[in-house]
Amino acid sequence: MSQNTSPSDRAPDPDAVRAYYNQFSEIRTRNYLRHGNPRIERAIARILPLVRDGSSVLEIGCGAGLVAEQIARAAPRGFVWGCDLSDSAIELARTRV
Questions:
Q1: Strand partners, 79
Q2: How much is the pTM?
Q3: Which of 7, 55, 60, 82 is positioned for an S-S bond with 75, CB 3.0–4.6 A?
Q4: Around 75, how many Cα atoms within 13 Å sit in the side-chain half-sphere?
Q5: DSSP letter at 9?
Q6: Alpha-carbon span 16 to 22, nearest angstrom
Q7: Which 8-state DSSP code applies to residue 78?
Q8: pLDDT, tens digit, for every residue of 35-81?
Q9: Angle of CA points 7, 9, 14, to nearest 5°
Q10: How far apart are CA 18 and CA 90, in angstroms?
C-alpha cells in the first residue's frame, strides 16, 4: 500500500478555514443587510411555522444570526443557540439576537 497522499487527502488547516469564513461573513453580511438574500428569506419562511413560543432551537452555521433573530422573535420564552466557524459572524449574531 502506498504512503503517498494527494493534496485532496489532507485535512484543511483549521485556522485557514476560520480566516476564510471570517472574511466571507463580513463581506456577505453587509450585502445581506443591504439587499436581502432569497436563500435566507426561504430558510426563515420554512422554519418559522415550526417555532413555538417556548421552542429551543440550535442553528448550525448561523452566520450573522439573521435566521436566529427571527426565530428568537417567534419564541420569546424559548432559547436559540447558534454556532458558526466565523468568530466575527458569531459576534455580530450576539448583537442581533
A1: 56
A2: 0.78
A3: 55
A4: 22
A5: G
A6: 10
A7: S
A8: 989 999 999 999 999 999 999 999 999 998 999 999 999 999 999 99
A9: 85
A10: 12
